[in-house]
Design a protein that fits this description.
single chain, five-stranded mixed β-sheet, 11 helices, disordered N terminus, nucleotide-binding, Phosphatidylinositol 5-phosphate 4-kinase type-2 gamma, PInositol-4-P-5-kinase_N, 1-phosphatidylinositol-4-phosphate 5-kinase activity
């Protein structure tokens, strides 16, 4: 794959490139930014616009301190050509575009694929959004777009230089969230801040069970309301009660623990705490049974499906997960490690065939006065020695690391 940051001879390359791009988007102009929510329409429009603009900007030899403070802003007024799909007035801000372009490159994501994954079809709303905040998954399920607060935008800015350095040092091999872009969408004087990350779960393998683990047993059990959901998020107490284990080879475990230790050192340095390990489990046997049931239904619908597939394949480029369509179809439990970067196959001698997805989430909580107050209150309630989740970063890291190394069989 050619790197998104390849340098072009402007005379040879830029003119034809912009021409083909233009043609590609004119053809789709009407549908491309249609979403039920104006914020999503503007997000799609803005991503498309900013990636097209960025493709005309030479990749810098090295990032400068100013790149970590930079942003590009676009203001659109009296927007008429596409008004059934986009609001008449809106603003779009792309934070630190050069830095995020560089991060995408380190994570092996080409800008054109990123653009297609976010701008070809509207992202899908996820009911997991906390406290009424938007939580979106790109239509091809490779990206997650999370609404964050203006304070969190500041936090990302504060750590971006160190985060970037960490990603460069570990060659993009990390359990941390892969931050790919940060935007502000302004519609009707209301600002929405959005952080784009790679989806930790697979774009094609269904997760049958998931856990959010912090290494604390105090108030760490899924509520009854949570447990009746189709895919509940279980917690530490549930993990222990279910006698759950992760069955991977010694070599895979060593790699995971090495990544984990490196990432936790970074989080301690940044004074972060209260993060979790997100663990998703794909049950291969269950997926095979489901596939057999679906195959019978599919045979009836085969002819219309073939026509659809041809239409789909004629629409290039394919997005982050889409380029795999041209290779042999994958069976249950198979994944491409370049796309499903958080996936780990269960060991050959595991009691059941599973695929695990493991990554660190909610990493932006700093040990500030709010957490100190929460810690004091919990210590009074549960006793100073109780395993509560709001503890000092070093203490949190030590307890977290000890707990996570015990989840393996």
């Amino acid at each position: 794959m050619s790197s998104p940051g390849a340098t072009f001879n402007p005379l040879n390359t830029l003119a034809p490139k912009s021409k083909t791009k233009k043609k590609h988007f004119v053809q789709q102009k009407v549908e491309v930014f249609r979403a039920s929510n104006p914020v999503l329409s503007v997000l799609m429009w803005g991503v498309n616009h900013s990636i097209n603009d960025l493709s005309q900007v030479p990749v810098p030899v090295m990032l400068l301190p100013d790149d970590f403070k930079a942003s590009t802003k676009i203001k659109v007024s009296n927007h008429l050509f596409n008004k059934e799909n986009l609001p008449g007035q809106f603003k779009f801000k792309d934070y630190c575009p050069q830095v995020f372009r560089n991060l995408r490159e380190h994570f092996g994501i080409e800008d054109q694929d990123y653009q297609v994954s976010l701008a070809r079809s509207p992202p899908l709303k996820d009911e997991e959004g906390q406290r009424g905040k938007l939580m979106l998954t790109s239509y091809d399920r490779t990206l997650v777009v999370k609404e964050i607060s203006s304070e969190e935008v500041e936090e990302v800015h504060d750590i971006l230089s160190e985060y970037h350095q960490h990603i460069v040092t570990c060659h993009g091999s990390t359990l941390l969230p892969q931050f790919l872009a940060m935007y502000r969408v302004s519609v009707e004087s209301e600002d929405t801040y959005l952080l784009v990350m790679r989806n930790m779960f697979s774009h094609r393998l269904h997760v049958h069970r998931k856990y959010d683990l912090k290494g604390s047993l105090v108030s760490r059990e899924a509520s009854f309301k949570e447990k009746v959901k189709e895919l509940p998020t279980y917690k530490d107490v549930d993990f222990r009660n279910n006698m759950q284990k992760v069955y991977v080879s010694d070599e895979a475990k060593e790699k995971i623990v090495e990544k984990l230790n490196r990432d936790i050192e970074f989080l301690v340095r940044m004074r972060f705490m209260d993060y979790s390990l997100l663990l998703g489990i794909h049950d291969v046997e269950r997926a095979e049974r489901q596939e057999e049931e679906e195959e019978e239904e599919e045979e009836e619908m085969e002819s219309s499906y073939e026509e659809e597939k041809e239409d789909e394949n004629s629409m290039a480029p394919e997005g982050i997960g889409g380029y795999m369509n041209s290779f042999k179809p994958m069976g249950p439990g198979e994944f491409d490690p370049y796309v499903d970067v958080y996936a780990i196959q269960s060991a050959v001698d595991a009691p059941q065939r599973e695929v695990y997805f493991m990554g660190l989430i909610d990493v932006l909580t700093q040990y500030d006065t709010k957490k100190k107050a929460a810690h004091a209150a919990k210590a009074v309630k549960h006793g100073a020695g109780a395993e509560i989740s709001t503890v000092h970063p070093e203490q949190y890291a030590k307890r977290f690391r000890e707990f996570i190394t015990k989840i393996f069989a």
